[in-house]
Amino acid sequence: MLRSHLAASSIDRPVYLLIDEIQTIPDWPRWVREVAEYDAIRTIATGSTNPLADPKEATLLTGRMTERTLWPMSLSERVRHRHPKAQTTSALVQEELTCMLEDGSMPVTIDMLESDRLATLDEMFRLIVRNDVPARPGTLASEDVTRLALELLTQTANLQSYKRLNDTLGWKNGRAKNACAAVESVHLVHRVVTFDAKSSAIERGDFKVYATDVGVRNAVAHRVAPDRGRLLETVVAGELRRRLGPGHRLFRWQGARECDFLVVRGDTPISALQVTMEVSALAERELDGLVECLEHFDLVSGVLVTWNLDEIRTIRGRTVRLVPARDWLMRQMADPLP
């Protein structure tokens, strides 16, 4: 039909073919590859899962495609959307950040009332778990995937291991590893692994899983205690993912203390960042973990993202910049860290 339409038309400019949820179409990469042979056709394919997670499918479009991941709105995008004509004051940005930690920033729900937003995010989660995750080869049944996804979202920013997940869910034969990969492939969560010089140790080591959108997480997770610190860390993790350029990777680091984020360019650690919600008395363990990481990799300075502190400290010869979260999240920078 498409060939007939093009043959019968006299269009002298490219035709754009838009296909949503393309992962539901069997053998779609082969079909898109055939369409790509026509110079007059440009195909834009979208999906709620990564349609090229299967290496066999990905090779069919090598050299013929550009892939983009669309993240939830950043804080700066949220502020511009909700207050297009207002002056961007610190108080306004702080208010939006506070709302963002609870509501998230999915474009479809950002202007909804609370009841509609919660219902929509819950339905979105259920549809992804039911329709997208089981489509991945070798994935568990829908009920087991739901249990795992809820556990990962509930434990956002907490330390995890595949053994711990298998034990928590009562699974055997190491099923958590493949199931985690499936849940990650549909962009419900993203992992940050522990840095190690040996790649084999990275695969075996502990990791943190962060919700891609805290609004989805808050709508479906079991919450028994205030967790704004973990939610802020989750938002920062998402912003780092957004900012990192080609050749950069994101890790966590573990010494005697933990450092939340370590940015590596190629094989070289270049930046370290820690997150805390402390308002007045700064938690010493957060500073200790960051400075220990700076010393280990011989980095001159690092960043501690806080709720409202803005100052510079020198500790054991290392410079630590304390930055309010609202300021750090609003910055548009080529370098992933200030």
From the structure above, extract its key features.
single chain; 338 residues; alpha/beta; 2 domains; 6-stranded mixed sheet; 3-stranded antiparallel sheet; 14 helices; 42% helix; 19% strand; disordered C terminus
Number of helices: 14
Largest sheet: 6 strands, mixed
How do the helices and strands follow one another from N- to C-terminus?
HEHEHHHHHEHHEHEHHEEEHEEEH
Shape: globular
What does this structure look like?
The protein is an alpha/beta fold and 338 residues long. The chain folds into two domains: 2-59, no CATH class; 89-330, no CATH class. Helices cover 42% and strands 19% of the residues. The chain has a six-stranded mixed beta sheet. A three-stranded antiparallel beta sheet has the order 3-5-4. Helix 4 (75-82) crosses helix 5 and helix 6 (114-132) packs across helix 11 (214-220). It is globular, with a radius of gyration of 22 Å. The N and C termini lie far apart (53 Å).
List the helices and strands and how they pair.
Blueprint (H helix, E strand, L loop, with lengths): L1 H7 L6 E5 L8 H9 L4 E5 L9 H5 L15 H8 L7 H14 L10 H19 L9 H13 L4 E2 L1 H8 L5 H11 L3 E5 L5 H6 L2 E5 L2 H7 L7 H16 L4 E7 L3 E8 L2 E8 L8 H13 L4 E6 L4 E5 L2 E7 H6 L8
Parallel strand pairs: 1-2, 8-9, 9-11
Antiparallel strand pairs: 3-5, 4-5, 6-7, 7-8, 10-11
